[in-house]
C-alpha cells in the first residue's frame, strides 16, 4: 500500500507527525485511524491519531495535540487520543481493524 496516496498525507507530513511523537518517550506507538486510515478521507479531513504506551497520560495527549495543531506547519486538524483510556469498545475495535502504525518505538518508520 502506498501510504501517501491512501492517507492523503505526504512523506514530509508523516515525518513531522512521527518526530513530534518521538519527542515524548512515553509514547510507544502512534496509530493513524479514521477516514485517512480507511482511504476515504476528503479535502479538509482531520487526522485521527491514537497513542499507546504504559506511561501515556492525559498530558501526553494534550502535548502532542498542541504540538501538531499549534506548532508544526501542517494544514490539518489533529484529533489525538489515548488508546489505553478508551472506554468505547467499538472505537478500540475500529482502531485495531483499520489503524496504520506510523511509529513504534521498536520499529520506527
From TrEMBL:
InterPro entries documented for this protein: NT_sf, Polbeta
Polymerase beta nucleotidyltransferase domain boundaries: 17-106
Record protein name field: DNA polymerase III subunit beta
Pfam family for this entry, one: Polbeta
